Structures are given as C-alpha cells and as structure tokens.
Give the backbone structure.
Amino acid sequence: MRRRLLINGIVIIIAVLAAVAGCAPVGTIGGGKDYDSMWTVPYRVVYDINDLFVRSKDLSVFASYHGTIQSIPVKKVSISIIEDPDWYDDEIPIPTDSNYPLLETGRKEIVIRYGKLETRYSIEVRDPFGLEGNSNNNSGSGIIIEWENP
C-alpha cells in the first residue's frame, strides 16, 4: 500500500513539473492534429519600387497547438500577393523557389496559408526616386528625353 502511494505521488510530481515547465505530457506537436492559430512576423513592410519580396527572408511563420508554439518553415506554407487589395485584385502565388519583383507602388497584401489556417499582412511599395513616372501620372522610367531639332 505504501509503495503504491509512493509511486502515485512520484507520477503526480513528474506530471506537475512537466506542466509547469510547459511540456506536453503526452504526444507531440503536429502529430496529424490541426493547429489552433497561425501568425506571421514580417521582417520588412516597406519596400522601394523594383525591390524583391524574398519569401525565404522577409517573414517568419508560427503556429500554435494547444498553447505550444512551433515555427513553420516558410517552404511549407503557400504565399501569394494581392497587388491592389483596395480593388480586390487576384492573388498571385509566389513559388517556393522564387522571389517576387515589386514593380508598382502602393499597398500590397501578402496572404499566407498553412493547412486550414490563413493570415494576411500589408506591405507598402514606395517610389523614392520617381522611377514610376512624373507628376502628370505618365508611366515611364523617370528619365525624360527631349529631342532638339537642328
């Protein structure tokens, strides 16, 4: 009887210590289970025109399962971009081995999906050197050529 109480006491102490340490006493994260939530940590939110959105370096993705947080490799998530979210533009997928050139100014929306979860965040593409056009909103490189007649 004493031995049984001692063993039960030790098991309870180990379970309490594991819970206090934040360990999941049974099973592992993932294990075929659905995650509770997902979020993204962007490393850049302001880009200059003609910069690249580099999916492997510009963000990190995390998911939680019953309070335990796990980093999700960016190669395992699907990432797409909406060029003009104010007018609901189509999503353009960014392949896992590619970067995306940001060729137009304005707000863009980055969409990240993993399993059944989705998260979004906005980036801003600016034109600090006037490369997209002049003040008359004419498109061009920002270089004006004037031809003179002899």
In short: Confidence is low (pLDDT under 50) at residues 23-32, 134-140. The chain is about 15% helix and 35% strand. The domain at 41-129 is CATH 2.60.40.1930 (Immunoglobulin-like). Residues 82 and 88 are 7 Å apart (CA to CA).
